[in-house]
Amino acid sequence: MAPARVADVEAVVRSRLLTVVADAVLADVATPLSSAQISVVVVCDAAGAAAGIITETILVRRLGLGQANRFGTRAGDVMARDFTACTTEDLLSDVLGMMPARGLIHDLLRCADKQPLGVSNAGDGLRALPAAGNHPEALLRNNVMAVGYR
What we know:
By secondary structure, the chain is an alpha/beta fold. The chain has helices spanning 10-15, 26-34, 56-64, 75-78, 92-102, 122-131, 137-144; strands at residues 19-21, 40-44, 50-55, 85-86, 106-110, 116-121. A hairpin with a 5-residue loop joins β5 and β6 (116-121).
């Protein structure tokens, strides 16, 4: 049986993609987050490439600490520039394996030119691995138990 790849969950991952341009104000970031089933927005540069991410945690922390203003602060000013990304060819087990170690619950799916394609989460892989017959027990246990999450 072939190992499960990110491509196996691509349709679900693509359905969760929320993007804003770097010049968007934080109110424009908060609006899609408030009605989405995902807690991350991808910030894109003028060419449409992923430049950073804003999670609900980043947004609430910046606003709550008075470090940002809903209508005056731009997404590019508060986005996390250090984020992980995968491609459709990556193995799901590899993507899932690094998430707890880095304290992540999301991983950006992007193509070679850095255009965002979607956002994966640990649940996507955990649902796909057993169906593909790929279920390393330690990987499943660590993700279910949230080992390594901050």
